């Protein structure tokens, strides 16, 4: 897995999905989204194999991070600007990890 269970992303994921009602920063949500996307990406490649190329892998990650941020925005409440900031930061964080680990 790209992120370990004691990584910043894993801790953020636990905090964001743990049912807390405190206001969450877009940075915290981005870290959680990148962790969630990494888990979903790994499940996807186990089931379907690796994407054909880097561009397809990045496109898949964009969808995975965006879906998580959208879900959190709806359940926890976020304004549109914070939501877009979180999506962008999450995508960049997940993309960087993807490239670092060569998972495409």
UniProtKB/TrEMBL annotation:
It comes from Suillus fuscotomentosus. The lineage of its organism: Eukaryota, Fungi, Dikarya, Basidiomycota, Agaricomycotina. It holds the Pfam family DUF3759. Coiled coil: none annotated. This is CipC protein. Residues 1-14 have a biased composition (Basic and acidic residues). Residues 1-21, 85-104 are annotated as: Disordered.
């Amino acid at each position: 897995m790209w992120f370990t269970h004691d990584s910043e992303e894993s801790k953020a994921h636990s905090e964001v999905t743990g049912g807390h009602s405190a206001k969450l920063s877009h940075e915290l949500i981005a870290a959680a989204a990148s962790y969630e996307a990494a888990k979903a990406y790994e499940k996807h490649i186990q089931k379907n194999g690796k994407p054909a190329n880097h561009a397809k892998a990045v496109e898949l990650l964009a969808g995975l991070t965006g879906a998580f941020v959208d879900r959190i925005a709806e359940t926890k409440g976020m304004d549109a600007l914070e939501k877009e900031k979180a999506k962008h930061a999450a995508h960049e964080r997940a993309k960087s990890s993807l490239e670092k680990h060569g998972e495409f």
